[in-house]
Design a protein that fits this description.
With about 450 residues, this protein is mainly β. It has strands at about 5, 30-35, 45-50, 60-65, 70-75, 85-90, 105, 115-120, 125, 140, 145-150, 155-165, 170-175, 185-190, 195, 205-210, 215-220, 225-230, 235, 240-245, 255-260, 265-270, 275, 285-290, 290-300, 305-310, 325-330, 335-340, 350-355, 365-370, 375-380, 385-390, 405-410, 420-425, 430-435, 440.
Length: about 450
């Protein structure tokens, strides 16, 4: 069937909401949709979701104290940068972070409106904090951590409930009780403990072991409840250990669960290599690497059902400076290496996320950011080529030093054109890119002046 190309026309936003550059309908490629003035609320942690209930996405910038990970300010804005509300006090000093932060956007109380959830830390009593190094656990706490629920529309606190004192690293929303909706919690400390928590705050189970940075969840035994995969272990919905491997002093840097075309589950994780295992813990395949920090799956090519994009941060052990470099790999589901690309010097801390950039159907692209020294993010295609280059943009008041700071990236359809936009964000700026190429749609035929035939 033939196809025609239809240009998506961007609607005018008003004089105070003009696009970052004039739309040129014949110029293909990435288009800067918006440069956001983050003033003093810029952050290296961002969540995207509908906060005001209009059906469209908003941005939630999260600031924290770098060494302690204490959340200090949440700022909700439109995708144009208009501030909707703030909870806490913003500061230019609190935009940077070295870890994940425990914040999510979700309709927690199932009333049809999203809330913003975050964890308020318990007091760390011992050992005393030295004021500089990262603080990740205590030998003694005072009080408990709190899950705080904020109204998405106003930022006002709607409620809070207690969590174990160490559970302040990150959390997942999961279905642990089989209600058919994810409304329970999996909470964790930095590396050592994880808890299942019911929607009413009741403790369901506790697991002590290597929990990794962020577990993956899926109903891999088809009982209507989520299992929890930490890389070195798989837990049933009730906390029962289904398999566990000796992690030593290691932890999983990345986890992913997918279902293959033959309906078998593949559990993927990265640490000192990339590993693919079955739900019983048996290994399908693995490849040794220096540090497999990121593992993401998607349909990046059309010649096989799914592929894996994997980052090796340290192919040269302990090499982490302006001369260090990482390697981006692509594997198929059987573990066959399809290609790899050595990154330029300084680009060792790269990160990846899938992005539905090219169209409404696969293949998807791979957003890669963290290139170092203020260098642009890029979108790779499944053939191993850079398809787009996306520089971070700043408002005019940001100096050269500001523009060399780290920034991160997320992919989401914030413009409503059925393709993902790329949102880049850091402590001194944020911007949004969209794909200005025409989107392909099926040819319209048998058109006439008398619809109804």
């Amino acid at each position: 069937m033939g196809k025609i190309m239809v240009i998506a026309v961007l609607m005018a936003l008003g004089t105070n909401q003009a696009l970052a550059q004039e739309a040129d309908p014949v110029a293909p490629g990435a288009r800067l949709l918006r440069t956001i003035d983050v003033k003093n609320f810029g952050a290296e942690t961002l969540r995207i979701g509908d906060l005001d209930g209009d059906g469209g996405p908003e941005l939630l910038f999260i600031q924290s104290i770098f060494g302690t990970r204490e959340i200090t300010c949440l700022t909700a804005t439109t995708i144009h940068g208009d501030v909707l509300w703030q909870s806490g006090t913003p500061s230019l000093d609190n935009g940077r972070i070295y870890s994940d932060l425990p914040v999510q956007i979700y309709d927690w109380d199932h009333d049809g409106w999203n809330e913003a959830l975050y964890v308020r830390q318990a007091k760390y009593v011992e050992p005393p904090y030295d004021g500089t190094s990262p603080r990740e656990r205590a030998t003694r706490y005072e009080g408990e951590a709190q899950m705080v629920v904020l109204c998405g529309r106003t930022g006002k606190e709607k409620g809070a409930f207690s969590l174990p004192a160490p559970a302040d690293d990150s959390f997942l929303i999961a279905d642990l009780n089989g209600r058919g909706r994810r409304e329970d919690l999996i909470v964790k400390d930095r590396y050592w403990n994880m808890w299942g928590v019911a929607h009413d705050g009741g403790m369901l189970w506790h697991y002590e072991g290597s929990v990794g940075h962020y577990p993956a969840i899926a109903d891999v035994d088809d009982d209507g409840k989520d299992e929890v995969f930490t890389g070195f272990a798989l837990l049933d919905h009730d906390g029962t250990v289904l398999f566990q491997k000796d992690a030593g002093n290691a932890h999983a840097d990345a986890t992913w669960i997918l279902r293959a075309p033959d309906r078998t589950w593949r559990l993927l994780f990265g640490n000192g290599g990339i590993h693919c295992v079955a739900p019983d813990g048996s290994e399908y395949w693995s490849h040794p690497l220096g540090e497999a920090q990121h593992v993401v799956a998607g349909r990046f090519r059309t010649d096989s059902p799914a592929q894996l994009a994997v980052v090796d941060r340290t192919p040269v052990p302990h090499h982490r400076d302006e001369h260090a470099w990482g390697i981006l790999y692509m594997y198929d589901l059987d573990g066959k290496e399809l290609w790899n690309s050595k990154q330029p010097p300084g680009a060792w801390a790269i990160a990846t996320t899938p992005v539905n950039w090219f169209g409404t159907e696969p293949p998807s692209g791979i957003l890669v950011y963290g290139m170092g020294n203020g260098r642009p993010a890029v979108i790779w295609n499944g053939a191993g080529n850079v398809a787009e280059t996306l520089p971070m943009t700043f408002t005019a008041d940001r100096n050269d030093r500001d523009q060399q700071l780290d920034f991160y990236g997320l992919a989401a359809d914030v413009w409503g054109d059925s393709r993902d936009e790329v949102v880049l964000f850091g402590s001194r700026g944020a911007c949004i890119y969209t794909n200005a190429r025409a989107a392909e749609i099926p040819t319209l035929y048998n058109e006439n002046l008398y619809p109804g035939m």
